[in-house]
Design goal:
about 100 residues; mainly alpha; elongated
Length: about 100
């Protein structure tokens, strides 16, 4: 999966989505309940994966000459819960360029 630019974006899309949902569904509610031990590690993990997602999308944009509107939709999806799962599903339908 990591051998192609599309594969990398698919992987980071899934990981980013899972960590975002964990942050929103587990860590933040626990913080509201008085236990803030998960917020920092979950937030840091999600932040790193978000940056990797953005970099992978930007790399793919350059390699496939994606229009700004398409890259914008892919990037906006990263901040909407569950949307990166749909991005990953759509990316599965694309033909992968040669390994980089």
């Amino acid at each position: 999966m990591l051998s192609t630019p599309i594969g990398r974006l698919r992987l980071f899309s899934l990981l980013e989505a899972v960590t975002f949902l964990f942050l929103l569904g587990v860590a933040v509610p626990m913080q509201i309940g008085g236990n803030d031990k998960l917020v920092m590690p979950a937030g840091m993990t999600h932040g790193i994966l978000f940056v990797l997602y953005v970099l992978a999308a930007w790399d793919l944009r350059g390699r496939l000459n994606w229009p700004n509107q398409l890259i914008g939709k892919v990037l906006v999806a990263a901040v909407i819960p569950f949307a990166p799962f749909f991005v990953e599903r759509w990316l599965r339908t694309l033909k992968a360029p040669a390994a980089a």
